[in-house]
Amino acid sequence: MTDQTTTAATPVRAGFVHTDVMAAALGFFRQVWVMRTLSILFVLGLWEWAGRIPVSPTFPTFTQTMGALFGMMADGSLFTAYGETLKPMIVGVGLCGIFGVAFGLAMGLSRRFEWFTLPVWVISQAAPMAAIIPLITFVYGIGLGAKVVAVVIMAAPIVVLNAYTGIRNVSASLLEMGSSFMATPAQRIFKIVLPAASGLIFAGFRLGLAQGLTGAVLAELLITPTGVGDLITYSRSIADYPAMFASVFSIIVFASVAVTLLQRLETRVFRPDQRRSG
Amino acid sequence: MPVAVKTAEPVRLRSAAEPAIRLRGIGKMFDDFRALEGIDLDFPRGELTTLLGPSGCGKTTTLKIVAGLLEATEGEVLVNGQPVTGPGPERAFVFQDFALLPWANVLRNVAFGLELRHVPKEEREEIARRYIAEVGLVGAEHKFPHELSGGMRQRVGLARALAVDAEILLMDEPFASVDEQNRRKFQEDLLSLLAHEKKTVIFVTHSIEEAVYISDQVAVLTRNPGRLSRVVRPEIDRSGHFDELRRSPAYLDAVDEIWHELKSYLDDEERAR
């Protein structure tokens, strides 16, 4: 496999005048990173423009927001906040990763277990689980435990359902191949089922991570103000809108980076075949 | 999913006359649908037997019953005189859709049967390299299945089956997804390979020419339900070159004979409609 981003050929069509410059320009725009960068710049440009109109006195420009972001990074308040937010998130997503996949595996392998549990997960995925976050306080109080629960109820359904779907859709012919070469039940799961389902399982992790982050921030906004949720609430209460938007912006960047790293990890561990073509 | 895995059986002395595989009164129902009825057939040791017939005649079902991947509703399969209760180490399967692990390179795919048997990594990779060479894939060891053509993928499937050193090879339309030119090449390669591997082979195909070309014995099946129609032994002199073989009278006669057998059956089927 060659890397598509570097070898994209420029077809020369008869009847068109093609200069080397045009060909080079076309080749340049065919490169994936160019279009991605342009897309991001376009959105940020819109943001800057909307802030300058301004669409609302509470809507800061991109540059003001970045200024606030670097300010929060410089005084360390951003990192302290993330340290706080990450605690329930890592525990919650970690729990979902272990028990969610085990649960999905059981559902994918046993019909009875599937019938018994699938409706619960489908409903909990469809229902607006964020709405019950305030109720958690009644049971789990306002500490770390309550926030972990908030992360879990946001992340678990998608992790479980993706693992289940992945395992249910493992190619029948691979399973038959395993049987014919006399795989033991454990070999069947670890050498065939899990690698084959890893794509959907990891897609579940990525979505679960994003959902878990939402859960953690919602818990901070709705239960007790700590971490990034507190940064948002506090900045808003003192009308420091650039800082408030910077906090929200940092969550988006954080989620994107975390999800991308997870994807890299998956390719490295389970799908080396996709590394070169990816 | 099928049945208990058969563990190692005591070594028995086998006479060359004893068929490697015997089917006795094999029948198969899928719910209310009868797929197979009363199949009695012997597969002589060291020979290549083809199961040939139109789609839906139960060729693949028969093969999977021999493999222990499906259970027969009636009758029994004897491999070296022992009844089949599940897959066993003396039988290796080559799949129509290759069934390669997409996340594993050629070397690991070929060694996968040995990996499942806990053969140490170095040893199984050495064996795998030997069979990769035999099927003509040297240089592709570290490629992934999606980087290979259909023909090359099936060579990986064949090498995987050879690597476990089973005495019986079960091949389910192995060339169905391979283009015609490569198919001929593959048939020739298979014959040269089998000439010095001494395997008992069951080969499923719906191509009359392919069946006659490669087989010592052709079992013709008909459908609704799948029954054994007749067994043809092409008796082709295989000492000459491959190309001469396709022009030999024995080859042409056998193709003709089987075609007429199937044609009369298909005509009957049409009239019955």
How would you summarize the topology of this molecule?
The complex is a heterodimer of chains A (278) and B (273).
Chain A: H1 4-7, H2 20-30, H3 32-52, H4 62-74, H5 77-109, H6 111-126, H7 133-140, H8 144-168, H9 172-180, H10 185-222, H11 227-237, H12 241-269
Chain B: E1 21-30, E2 33-43, E3 48-52, H1 59-67, E4 74-79, E5 82-83, E6 91-94, H2 106-110, H3 112-116, H4 121-134, H5 150-163, E7 168-172, H6 180-197, E8 200-205, H7 208-214, E9 217-222, E10 227-232, H8 242-245, H9 249-272
Parallel strand pairs in B: 3-8, 3-9, 6-7, 7-8
Antiparallel strand pairs in B: 1-2, 1-4, 4-5, 9-10
Helix pairs in contact in B: 4-5, 7-9
3D structure, described in words:
The complex is a heterodimer of chains A (278) and B (273). Chain A has helices spanning 4-7, 20-30, 32-52, 62-74, 77-109, 111-126, 133-140, 144-168, 172-180, 185-222, 227-237, 241-269. With 278 residues, chain A is mainly alpha-helical. Chain A has 2 domains: 2-52; 62-275, MetI-like fold, CATH 1.10.3720. In chain A, helix 5 crosses helix 8. Chain A starts with a helix and ends in a 9-residue tail after the last helix. The model of chain A is unreliable at 1-12 (pLDDT under 50). Chain B is of the alpha/beta class. In chain B, strands 6-7-8-3-9-10 form a 6-stranded mixed β-sheet, with helices on both faces. In chain B, strands 2-1-4-5 form a 4-stranded antiparallel β-sheet, covered by helices on one side. In chain B, helix 4 packs across helix 5 (150-163) and helix 7 (208-214) runs antiparallel to helix 9. The longest helix of chain B is centred in the last third of the chain and has 24 residues, at 249-272. Chain B is globular. Chain B starts with 20 loop residues before the first strand and ends with a helix. Chain A binds chain B through residues 1, 171, 173-184, 187, 191-192, 195-196, 198, 270-273, 277, and chain B through 1-2, 5, 67-69, 87-89, 91-93, 95, 97, 99, 101-105, 112-113, 115-117, 144-147, 160, 164.
